[in-house]
Amino acid sequence: MEDYNTLIRLYPDEVEAYYRRGVLYLELNNRAKGEADFRKANELDPDHFFTLLSKALLFKLNDDWEAAEKIYTRLIESEAHPDPSILLNRAECYVYSGQTFRAAADLRTVEPTQRDNPYFYFLRGRVRLDQFDKVAARADFNKAKEMGYDLPVVDEWIEKTR
Q: What is the pLDDT of residues 32-64, one digit of tens each?
């Protein structure tokens, strides 16, 4: 935290520093300070990449998956080779807004880069369950569990595959 505080003191117009400190505040369960940093990033440059990421994150925290998806789509369309994490975030939005086929397409695109990510397997398990493939869904949920994904959550989804 102190590193970000120092960066912001030295470079008060650095949008990325506010974004990263805001994310850290969220990880520390201090949503108010995280949102304050995101608002500051928005004041500095509302169209900056990291400002847009902060807006999408806030939409997700408020369960506004469609608004978050629009931001991720905008970011994806603005890049020749979008970062796989942006595609994974959009896939998450699609999963939570019931757009199974779109989620599946994004997950297929990022699969080679996400083999070590338990959340990828959790999301793909959700998609596969929505596609009535309980066996494949269970395998993905079990893989997410083996990799340490949120055990109570993944256990609940494993139960849905029985």
A: 999 999 999 999 999 999 999 999 999 999 999
Distance CA(71)–CA(54), nearest Å, equals 10
Write out pLDDT tens, residues 104-124.
999 999 999 999 999 999 999
Q: Where are the alpha helices (DSSP H) in the chain?
A: 2-10, 15-27, 31-44, 49-61, 65-77, 84-96, 100-110, 118-130, 134-146, 151-160
Could you tell me the two tokens for 37? 């940093």
Look up the CATH architecture of domain 1-62: Alpha Horseshoe (1.25)
Nearest to 62 by CA among 98, 35, 83, 87: 35
Q: What is the three-class DSSP state of 47?
A: coil
Tokens standing for 69? 């998806």
In sequence order, what are the residues at sequence separation of 6 or more whose Cβ sits closer than 8 angstroms to the Cβ of residue 119? 88, 92, 144, 149
Classify domain 65-162 by CATH number.
1.25.40.10
The C-alpha atoms of residue 94 and residue 112 are separated, in whole angstroms, by 19
Are 69 and 90 in contact by the 8 Å Cβ rule? The answer is: yes
